[in-house]
């Protein structure tokens, strides 16, 4: 799993230019997320717009100590996509208005798939908050599913040290996730 880069300055949604910066930084990813979930380019654009509108309205509730702006926006986007998906299910005639080529390319997704995607982003954010040694040990053993002896040799440490890093890394990750108020 490739981790995304963290920007040195997180846009603030408390002013208009901050919303523009947040859109520039995350709008494309949010659009692709919505497009995968909805299968309709126009509806995906609406989802991104609604995501930023909801974020603007709830800007006082955003706490950068709990989660990164990207994670918070994807949580909002997930809810918007689910709402739009449900609305489309309640109005099946809306699906006939979508572009057939886009519908044919869109993978079939469910709210469970979106939930998994959001969970992966939350775990990614939690991993960013760990120390380098613990994060690397977890990424290589758990996420890349590599054998302990291979990873230990690559890192130049004994296998027992790697096992300790994994053990304490998981404990630290659990604490970070609790601080972020995430239960997976």
Automatic annotation (TrEMBL):
Gene3D superfamilies, alphabetized: 1.10.1740.10, Winged helix-like DNA-binding domain superfamily/Winged helix DNA-binding domain
The keyword Acyltransferase is assigned to this record: no
InterPro entries associated with the record: RNA_pol_sigma-70-like, RNA_pol_sigma-70_dom, RNA_pol_sigma70_r2, RNA_pol_sigma70_r4, RNA_pol_sigma_r2, RNA_pol_sigma_r3/r4-like, WH-like_DNA-bd_sf
GO molecular function annotation: DNA binding; sigma factor activity
Keywords: DNA-binding, Sigma factor, Transcription, Transcription regulation
The organism's place on the tree of life at top rank: Bacteria
Biological process per Gene Ontology, one example term: DNA-templated transcription initiation
Residue ranges constituting the RNA polymerase sigma-70 region domain according to the UniProt record: 23-89, 127-174
PANTHER family per record: RNA POLYMERASE ECF-TYPE SIGMA FACTO, RNA POLYMERASE SIGMA FACTOR SIGZ
Protein family according to the UniProt entry: Belongs to the sigma-70 factor family. ECF subfamily.
Protein name (database record): RNA polymerase sigma-70 factor, ECF subfamily
Source organism of the structure: Nocardioides scoriae
């Amino acid at each position: 799993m490739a981790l995304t880069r963290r920007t040195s300055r997180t846009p603030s949604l408390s002013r208009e230019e901050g919303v523009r910066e947040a859109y520039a930084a995350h709008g494309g990813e949010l659009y692709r997320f919505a497009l995968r979930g909805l299968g309709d380019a126009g509806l995906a654009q609406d989802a991104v717009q609604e995501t930023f509108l909801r974020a603007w309205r709830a800007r006082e509730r955003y706490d950068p100590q709990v989660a990164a702006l990207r994670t918070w926006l994807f949580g909002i986007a997930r809810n918007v996509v689910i709402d739009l998906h449900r609305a489309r299910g309640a109005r099946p005639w809306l699906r006939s208005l979508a572009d057939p080529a886009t519908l044919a390319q869109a993978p079939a997704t469910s709210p469970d798939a979106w939930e998994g995607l959001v969970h992966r982003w939350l775990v990614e954010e939690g991993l960013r908050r760990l120390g380098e040694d613990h994060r690397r040990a977890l990424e290589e053993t758990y996420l890349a599913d590599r054998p302990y002896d291979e990873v230990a040799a690559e890192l130049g440490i004994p296998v027992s040290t790697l096992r300790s890093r994994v053990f304490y890394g998981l404990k630290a990750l659990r604490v970070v996730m609790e601080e972020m108020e995430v239960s997976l």
